[in-house]
Structure formats: structure tokens, C-alpha cells
Amino acid sequence: MADGVIKTARRLFEVLEYFDRVQQPMSLRDISRHFGYPISSAAALLKSMVAMGYLNYDKCTRTYVPTMRIAMLGNWVQDALFGQSRILALMTRLNEVCRETINVGIQSDLVAQYLHVIPSCREGASPGTVGRHAVAPGVVRPLAKSGVGWLLLSAHSDETIERLVRRMNVRLRDRGERIVLPDLMDEIRAIRQQGYVFSRHTVTRGAGMIGAVLPVQQHGRVLTIGIAGPVERLEGKKKLILREMRRGFEELTSAAA
Description:
By secondary structure, this protein is an alpha+beta fold. The chain folds into 2 domains: 2-72, Arc Repressor Mutant, subunit A (Orthogonal Bundle); 77-256, GAF domain (Beta-Lactamase). The protein has helices at 2-22, 28-35, 39-51, 68-73, 77-82, 86-98, 147-154, 158-171, 181-194, 231-256, and strands at residues 26-27, 55-58, 63-66, 101-108, 111-118, 129-130, 133-134, 140-142, 197-200, 207-213, 223-230. The chain has a 6-stranded antiparallel β-sheet, sandwiched between helices. Strands 1-3-2 form a 3-stranded antiparallel β-sheet. Strands 6-7 form a two-stranded antiparallel sheet. α2 crosses α3 (39-51), α6 (86-98) runs antiparallel to α10 and α7 (147-154) crosses α9 (181-194).
């Protein structure tokens, strides 16, 4: 029973995310073919989503499309996570001034996860990418082996970091992949001292990120903001990026006071 529930939940969100990508009505056959679902299983899922009010079915075209109930479900999230749009405004300004991809990250147990991404406004850049490497909301990064992860860890006490590392190492079967705590703490201490991280080639060769912990928390949760792009471009923009981040942080702090 538990496995069946998990599979159904996964398929439900896969379908909703697929509609978000294609942004057009889709037929039962379209969805079944795209995901490789049996026609009978896809039909049962879509009928259930219609009955719950999340999809609308057009008998003439025999297609499904999400209802406004989907959009209304997340209305509260933006303010809850992004402080009445002030963080989104900061992201937008950094994107316009620095012309690189801007992301906001949060810790999810033992990984860092991107909550929101504004892609580079450079000509020819694809949405949600740094060069050819996908960076999109929902993407996760290793908490102890990525710039955004180091930032999130830097907000914890040393004792908490040690506990998290023990848990991470337990899950790593390959001993060669295990985190060396002293090396990690060197990174953390450097971030705490300088107030930001500049990760280079950490997750993807050629890509980097300059980021910092946001000075305001949302519902007690630490958020990070990062400017991501090719390392060479970030090197040339480092002073500009840090200046604009500090300016934005001052405005966020003043608004929250």
C-alpha cells in the first residue's frame, strides 16, 4: 500500500510539473506516451485530478488543463519565503545589474535546494541555465560539497555541523567520497570571516557562484542568495557583485527593522 501511494503521489506531481513546462492542454495519450504510463493508469490519475478540482477536462478536444486552484494553492508561499517580495526584488536587481543567474537556496535535511532562480539575462542564455548546465528551482546540491551548502552550514554551530557530517558520511558507501570534517571547517571559517563564498568549479567544471547568507530569515529558516555563472566572468565582476549584495542586504535589514 505504501509503495502504491508513493508512486501515485510522484505521478501526480510529475503531471503538474509537465503542464508547467509545456503550458498547453494535453490529451490522455500525450501524457501516457510522455511518461510511459499505462493508458489505464494515466486515465485513472487524470480523472482523479479532475474530480479533485485540479484539472479541467474538455470533452470536445479531449484534453486536460490545470485549473486556477493550482495557482491559488501557492499564493501564500511567495510572501512566506521571500518576505513580501523584498527578496524577489533584490534578486531581480542583482540579475539586471550583474547579468548573471541569481538563485535563492535553503537547507532541506542533508542537501541544499534552490527555491527560486532568475536566469541570466545575457543574450542567448537559456532559461534556468549557467552555460549548458541546468540550474532550476528544486535542484539540490550536496550540503558539504557546494557553495550554497557551505553557506547554509556556516549559519550552524560547529557542533551542529559535526553532527550533520556524521549523518552524511553514514549515507556515503564509498569511503573516498566521505567528508573530511577539518577540511570542511576550513571552508566554513573562511566564509564566516569574509561574509561570503566564492565557489569555483565545485559542482560543475567552469561554473562558480558568489553568494552569502541573507540577513533576514523567513519563518526561522536561513536563506542564501547566489550569483552564478562562468568562473572567469565572476572573477571580473567580483567587486560589483559584492557591492550590490551588500547594498541589497542593508535595504533588507532596514525594511525588516
